Amino acid sequence: MEKKTHMISEEHLYAIALRECKLIGDITFYKLVRIFGSAKETWENVKKEYKKTNGIGLKIISDIGNIDHLKFAEKEIKFCQENNIKIRLRHYNELPSLLSECDDAPSILYQKGNFKKEVKTLSIVGTRNMTSYGEKFIHDFFIETKSDQYTSVSGLALGVDKEVHEQSINHHIPTVAVLAHGFNFLYPSKNRKLSEKILSENGALVTEFASSRKPDRENFIQRNRIVAGISPSTIVIETGFGGGSISTATFANNYNRDVFALPGKITDKYSQGCNHLIFQNKATAISSIKNLTESLGLGKYKHQMEELFPQNKSILELTENQELIYKLIKKNPQVFLNDLIEKTDLSSHKILPLILELELLGKVKTLSGRQFIAI
Hints:
The protein is of the alpha/beta class. The chain has 17 helices and 12 strands. The strands form 2 sheets. It has a 9-stranded mixed β-sheet with strand order 1-2-6-5-4-3-7-8-9, with helices on both faces. Strands 10-12-11 form a 3-stranded antiparallel β-sheet. Helix 2 crosses helix 3 (about 40-45) and helix 15 (about 320-330) crosses helix 17 (about 350-360). Belongs to the DprA/Smf family.
């Protein structure tokens, strides 16, 4: 469909009303507007022309046409106009392009502030209980990439998210906060000043939730798919088992995006989630900030300088088994785990920890499908 100029129009009214209908989720919404041509046409014709709906059941469309939803949409538009909030429609190609590619992309994205669609985005997430280890990594990463053109994305939570937004602002990198509620709220309230700073420093706040939606628990998981879908890469700094960042990494994997995780000691609670993502081949281990920025296509100028003035690197001593696995991977690029098992007579539960150790040393990289290459 053609992109319209960004005026709040009749189509915005019907889109909000349609999305408010019970049982109409983002995937069904998108199917219907593609069949009927617009949200307005869907609203007015779906029941008369039910045979067109390609298997979308009567129960699902039963709430379309409910006048209460139009009244809700009128109030929402008034709120957006009064608070300088843009209403982005997926079917008008107004979402960030990578996000729009996701099957379950939000039908509507409410946006406050500036978000340049053409600038590369990088999602960075982690625990609310950030340690000094995670904090130092974030500081070092932003120092390394301060000359690069990109926009950071996180979730405005306490801990890692807050640090990501603050360091972005400190280094004049635009930052986008994805909220798990409507613009009538700000959660956590401690981050109100930070949210204002994000807007004043050329960043944005975005949400798929209408203004009256509170920060309910389930909204946070739903929000995480936007954080994952909006960027080609997601970095997980620190997280425990079952932390919210695990869901963001899972969404990123499902969208075929790159995931990087900061490994840590197996005894550290907030490294266990990252270590597990690496162990399951759901994330690439971050072995150094230099290797990470190279993988992301950032920090290029600095790295060229390092090549002109190389630093002395201490030679790493590998154990006998590490050496064995490393040589096999070097000799057989993109070798599969099963092939390593055959060539070494070692079991997978002995080989995988060795590979993890080699990844941490920056000697080996894991590819999808349990394939490995030497770096």
